[in-house]
């Protein structure tokens, strides 16, 4: 989405933005009768206590908590919240796995000129570690999403060189 924001959506008129907002508001809720999620405070409380017994929690503490915080809420306009994040909760975990493997970059716009970035972790975490980390995030802070497997990560990792080439071509 960084490419889209930098080269397209930041230039939408107020009328265009109102039309997009109107359309999005017309869509039904994605899971109106979903069971109630466990308390988001459970994950935060465990991390504050130093309880890293849940697979992936130590990896979260070591690699993610500095930016996304112990409560998973991140920092407004800087580091996105993981709690309730639609990319995290998607039935298809490909997006969040790719972000962990490849990193990410905020779009540079007239209002946000810094282009903050999240580092990639493909070089330092193996497939099982990424699966544990993503599963932890997908089930922490009240999130409820299916677990991720090392095989899912391996499949996306295999495509990393192709994705990096595509990104390089877009930026030129």
Characteristics:
globular; 172 residues; two-stranded antiparallel sheet; mainly alpha; 10 helices; 2 strands; 50% helix
Q: What is the string of helix and strand elements?
A: HHHHHHHEEHHH
What share of residues are in beta strands? under 5%
Q: Given the C-alpha coordinates, what overall shape results?
A: globular
- Low-pLDDT stretches are 32-38
Write down how many β-strands occur, each being a DSSP E stretch of 2 or more residues: 2
Cα gyration radius (Å): 17 Å
Task: Please explain how this structure is put together.
The chain has 172 residues and is mostly helical. The protein has ten helices and two strands; from the N terminus they run αααααααββααα. The longest helix is centred in the first third of the chain and has 13 residues. It starts with a helix and ends with a helix. About 4% of the residues have low confidence.
Secondary structure layout plus pairing:
Elements: H1 2-7, H2 14-26, H3 40-49, H4 57-63, H5 65-68, H6 86-89, H7 94-102, E1 104-105, E2 117-118, H8 127-138, H9 150-158, H10 160-171
